């Protein structure tokens, strides 16, 4: 998907928030924002992809400040998510029916995308998560959970594209259920810091390798899938995938730029109007949407 008018405001606002996290130096903050407005003036146009231009924004902040703005927040997010993981796992484990287990696990994963673990100064509580879970069915604007399960029952391997730190902990609930259905799971994190996305550091902190069969990275500090920046190793893995699970809006923004070579299951919360409009649902709705190839060789 391409940028819309609203993306301009969002890109700059998030850049300012990142600068505040990255440095206390008021002069440096102004220099970064000056460079950012120049960058957006030169690169923000109708052909720009939100996740791609957002990547350049983040790397500019990191380069000029010498810091990863989200480093500490990601660590805190992982700790919070690990603290609530046992209780959420119980919600799945109390059911013996595989279909029921899988649906609850998928809905927990969708709910996890609704939680803004990365917002500084925002308290998170288990009661808040329970409220989100109570509403997750009501807020499920596109429900292809049954179709998702059918694909898994006929797949040997799944490529699972992770999203944020914190959130990846709750994704492990769904990964376990996917493996119960038969397929191997290769979990993929980012190749370096960008936004609050999970990296190998986060994967190690939460024990992702104890859940997924393999943990790999994209080979790049880039939001979503960016084939111009991703490593050759990841691109081979991606192009040969049998079934892909893609968490979050960043993956959706980038993956909708080309026709999928295999079914892609998008699990996310439509947290902004441009993405919601592209999907065709209201803002702040949960989506389990499967995109399939429209062309064949």
Q: Secondary-structure element order, as H and E?
A: HHHHHHEHEHEHEHEHEHE
CATH architecture of the largest domain: 3-Layer(aba) Sandwich
Portion in strands: 5-15%
Enumerate the strands of the largest sheet in spatial order, edge to edge or round the barrel: 1-7-6-5-2-3-4
**Major sheet details:** 7 strands, mixed
The CATH first-level class of the largest domain comes to: Alpha Beta
Helical stretch tally? 12
* Tally of domains: 2
Count all strands and give the number: 7
The stretches of 5 or more residues where confidence is low (pLDDT under 50) are 118-122
Work out the radius of gyration. Answer: 18 Å
Task: Outline the secondary-structure elements.
Blueprint lengths: L4 H18 L3 H18 L6 H16 L5 H23 L4 H17 L11 H11 L3 E4 L1 H9 L3 E5 L5 H14 L3 E6 L10 H7 L7 E4 L14 H8 L4 E4 H8 L8 E6 L3 H7 L6 E6 L6
Parallel strand pairs: 1-7, 2-3, 2-5, 3-4, 5-6
Antiparallel strand pairs: 6-7
Helix pairs in contact: 1-2, 1-3, 2-3, 4-5, 4-8, 5-6, 5-8
Quick structural overview:
The chain has 297 residues and is of the alpha/beta class.
Brief descriptors of the model:
2 domains, single chain, Rossmann fold, alpha/beta
